[in-house]
Design a protein that fits this description.
The chain is α+β, with helices and mostly antiparallel strands and about 60 residues long. It has one domain (about 5-55). It is about 35% helix and about 15% strand. The N and C termini lie far apart (about 55 Å). The model has no long low-confidence stretch (mean pLDDT about 90).
């Protein structure tokens, strides 16, 4: 393998490692159902447990 191809190959391997690490470190998805979702916005509303931010709302759907 030529030195010219070594750097792009290394960059691809590092990128794949970063993608895998991000995917592996995600927490579980929790689904919660409420009768009303007024004031809840996807990507804006923080999720809190005992006064500690533990995540954000990813999606709001109608059932």
């Amino acid at each position: 393998i030529s030195w010219v191809w070594l750097m792009p190959l290394l960059a691809v391997l590092v990128a794949l490692g970063m993608v895998w690490q991000t995917y592996a470190n995600r927490g579980p998805m929790i689904v919660v159902t409420f009768p009303s979702a007024s004031g809840i916005e996807a990507g804006q509303t923080p999720l809190r447990f005992r006064e500690l931010d533990v995540g954000t709302v990813e999606e709001v759907t109608f059932s």
